[in-house]
UniProtKB/TrEMBL annotation:
This is Immunoglobulin superfamily DCC subclass member 3. One of its GO terms (cellular component) is membrane. The keyword Transmembrane applies. The chain crosses the membrane at residues 606-626. It comes from Tichodroma muraria.
Amino acid sequence: DFGRSSELAFVVEPSDDIAVQEQPLILYCQVEGIQPITITWRKNGVMIVDSENAFMLANGSLYVSRFQRVRGDGSSDEGEYDCMAQNQYGLVVSRKAKIQAATMSDFHIHPQNAVVEEGGVARFQCQIHGLPEPVILWHKNSMPVNTDNERYTLLPKGVLQITGLRAEDSGIFHCVATNIANVKFSREARLTVSGSHSTVYKDPMILVGPENLTLTVHQTAVLECIATGNPRPIVSWSRLDGRPIGVEGIQVLGTGNLMISDLTVQHSGIYVCAANKPGTRVRRTAQGSLVVQAPAEFVQHPQSISRPVGTTAIFTCVAQGEPPPQITWLRNGQILETSDHIKLKNNNSTLSIYGINQADEAIYQCLAENSAGSTQASARLTVLWADGLPSPPQGVRAETVSATTIQVSWEKPLQNTKEIIGYVLHIRKAADPVEMEYQEAVSKSTFQQLVTDLEPSTSYSFYIKAYTSRGASKASEVTVVSTLGEVPAMPSLFIKVINSTTVQATWEPSIKLGQHEGFKLYYRKVHLSQYTGPVLLASNVTAYNITHLDASVVYEVKLLAYNQHGDGNSTVRFVSLRETVERTVLNPPCDCMKDEQNNKTSTTGIIIGIHIGVTCIIFCILFLMFGYRGRLLMCKNVQEQLSTPQIPRSQRSATGLVLNGTTRRDRDDRDLNGKQLDMNELERLFPASPSQEQQEKGITLAHSLSAPHDETQISTLPLEEFSIIEEQPDPLPKNLHGSSPAAPAPDHGPANEG
């Protein structure tokens, strides 16, 4: 019974069809499997009862004698049909076949009159809807158009293109639409070819570009592109995404229409038609999208399986298509409903049945469907049940040991215990789905199991199965028990000294603390037995300052977390403030306000100092510049003074003016070999020469000043030899108040004399 031929499966399924009004229709259905097999039909989910109009043939096919789109009672033979087959192992349902009536509407686009110059392009179009898609042919002057003429192009959607027009192309055109439902004629349109071929340049222009198309695999797509211009443009095609169009199944119709045969999903994309002026980069473009759909098809079929009672059965069904198909599961022809032990995962691609029993034995079907079509595949689940298997274990009990441990115990089954090879304990959180269950194996002589590593304050469910070499017993009764609560873990504690009387206790929140209501903080002097506290702190508090401490002793600080189950273990730290006091004595704390003011004062002083320094530098530069200019002026006055007659040496004091430790005469003798002052350079620097009166006035300056007690001789020297020493005052002349020395006469002596 477990051979391939025993599987109930469809050999032939009904397919989509278009029926003709008042004509017979046959829907085929052929099934294989273990007999007897019963076949029934449904339309739109409703069972079809044999009647004069529709009945089932001996081979299982459905025969409709006179198909009618609308019957007298308002019903219709159009709809979705499926075939159901059933035997002793289950029931399967075929794919849905969509049946439509053949129709044809009136033309909604008729050809229009056209006047085109010779050598140009003419285009006629007519459109009509129908099922199946009507075939459109063109007539010229009531005769079929000669399709052997290369200048005439007929496109599947009712388009006629005529390129390189000539005078003989003029005429009356109309189209004829035909399908199994009807034949219809469009209105007529006249084509007039005027004048001769023009040589005037015209930019390329696309008259009609490609339309957006949605087709199914294996169909044919025609993308229209007709362009004009002078010279005649070159039409080319490309994909917007840059991928190559390819050559297989590709054909160009007429002067630029693209035809793609035997479509695949890879042909989907945006296609660009370009009209190029020969020899230039002048071009015009138009684009249209092509969407290729693919009916659902299976990549992986579900496989029939046999499983012992209490185990898990898994079916996998993977389908592909464009757009991606939706997957639905059926159980004996009915939509499968999920429950605690029936789960669907991976976008319904995986069906899992946990803890199977005899009620789960059935045929499971996977239906994959999208807008392009549907398909189905089936598999059978056989639940193995052998005679003489043990009865379920008895007296299952679970007792809580701790927050993470539960003790489970049971008694051996009442029947068929000789072949038992062991027990399996099934464990699951009560709130978790069935697929989260896990098992622990136990020897046949053990009737208790300590389950560890559980979560505190959590409910768990347990049941036991007894296993033999031929299969497992049924599950025992399920028992549910909760673990105990758990006190929080030890918190991490850190102590920071703030000052000589204050420390700060800080701790970090942690998941390891578990559920806690808050913290308790204690502290004491180490030589005392009594703690200060507890200080109760909320669970979101992570720091606390302990103040008014004695800096001369060591303190012990203790922190613990607590909850409704009690206090957790504490963390202890020791802290001394003595070092802080010593540091404070050696390095007294700063007066922050005073320091801040000092900082501000220092900053202001620095800025003022910078300003004073810059000012001093400027004054120094100016002083040097004007001082140098003054020295030059003084040098020039010396030269002018030396060029006038001097007072006779005999009239001067014997001590006279001493320069550089020598008498003036010695100086004169030495200057004979010295360097002379460059008068031309002085005149160039100081072009305005003083007057003779000023010169004389400058020379006799010392004599015009009245001094009651002494007389000083003032003189100047060239810059390079300028040096002054203290000179002795002359003795008062006896005739100082009686007469004044006579003014000396001008003398043009050497410029470097004296």
